[in-house]
Predict the 3D structure of the following.
Amino acid sequence: MKLSQMMVLCAALGQSVYAAEADFIQVNGSGAVAVTPTQARLTLVFSAQQADVAAGKQAVDAQSAAFAALLSKHQIKASDVNNAPLVVYPEQREQKLDQFRIERSTTVLIRDLALYPVLLEGAAKLGVSQIQPVDLQTADSEQYYTEALQQAFQAAKAKALQLAALSGRKLGKVNQLHEQSSAPGPRFKGMMMAADSMPVSFGQQQIRADVQVQFELINP
């Protein structure tokens, strides 16, 4: 065998041995940042049950228009309001199709949380049929999530360093990194709040991030 061929063979064997001896450690890390909600997304449903669809539509349209006027009164922008199309559901009673449920949902982004109880009370006076759990948000959620993600990675790395030291090895480069979470939308399970002298407090919510990291283990 020629010298050049032997060198290529040895190089190939060396690479194979290195690949076989390579060890990895996989760890999970979590991070969380406590934030105070700054806005809320609220969805209300106005509905009517009528034998005459046109009459039901008129009733629902009147409720929706009155609620729109309430939103305008409190200077909520039209771009923050979404009125869904009218939906008609047949209602069968005693094997007869003689009633229809007509409904329309309205979703509004409330940027001033002080308006939350005011709008709920106004919707209740208009005869709202359903109020879905409010989706509390913070305007800078992506920024806070990035901070939580950094915490999660550092927590994973600290755990890997500790385990590597216990095994008598050193931590090498990152081999794999998986983000296991996304910026959350915490939900407040409230339905009605009266607009009185008691200030509304939504407390704090946590924006969490989770990662799974695989590090290379190397001999000291």
Remarks:
- The first helix runs from residue 3 to 21.
- The first strand starts at residue 23 and ends at 35.
- Residues 38 and 139 are 6 Å apart (CA to CA).
